[in-house]
User: Fold this.
Amino acid sequence: MVDPLGFRRLLARETNVSDLLQYLTDRDPTPWAALAPGTVGADREARIGATQSADLILRDIEGTATGGVEVKLGYTFDGAQAEAYEKTLDERIPLLLAGLDTDAVSAGAARERWQFVHLSTLVSTWTSSKDTEAAAVACAAARVLTHWDETTSAVLEIGGHGAPLAAIQEPFLARVVTRALETRLHERRELRTLADVTLGGGNATLMAFSRIPDERPGREFIGEIRWSIPKQTMVLRLGLDYPRGSREERQAVWDAALRMDDVIAADRFISHVAASTPVIARTLSSKGAGRPRRKGNWNDIIEKGFESGDAKNYNPGFHRDRDTRFEAMAQVDLSQASGVVVESLLTLGLDYLAEHWRPAGSQS
Assistant:
């Protein structure tokens, strides 16, 4: 076990890490000397700006601010947060973004006043503290943070080394990885992206969308992965996603899905990928088209919309979310696929759908 004391769960929340830094500062503030000289204490959740709170405001013996610290564990560091610190704290006061390796990209999005600090490195400075309690706690916490950095960096192939996604054994880290991939997809391909968790199960999800040519805004191709750490499974889903809430959109997406019936098929997509990138194709498998059997008359759903209890009587012959998202599904081999492979699968999937798109008036 990496942390027999159970620090992984304790540290899997940004608020808990901020509390840890305040605790360590209260026990021994000297490790801040290089980053925020004069620090003797820290305040948690001090008000900055009109509506924001700082994770930590470092202070000197007179109570004057010596630094601002924002803690991130895979979440986006947005401009509004940065601006709140900048407007509240004097420009001579250092501003620190403390996070995992995967959060370093957020520092680039911040303004020039900000300095990125690796949490594993920061917490490690207390391991040599003369305060034995602080040193012991820091040792346990640093061990976990270092493990998280090494594991996520490996599966994301940061620094050129790679590891399969099977190395990720904690739901929290799966969410960190999917959020990092979301940032990559958005920046490299300018795709609309969403990293989230499934309702109920809390499994990590990552969705990427691209607009369908010559269709109204909101009608999109979708590629998504759903990743269950408890089951050690991941699925890739590809298909169509239209706006919810109207009969017009239900009819439009159904008509489009019928035109694309042989395209929204996992086995065909795998064959398509195998022709150009067989190494990536080997990470995928499916049972035929990767779709359920059709059940009931879907025109009933087009007329009234999908309601609670309809699932037992109706299925469009696609994996679906409500009544305007239709997809095929393939399994992803976690023992072979890295984060870079998942990124490629989503972009390849969207490109595949766009290449084979059949507009209204076409036949499947």
Summary: The CA atoms of residues 10 and 215 lie 47 Å apart. The chain has a mean pLDDT of 91.
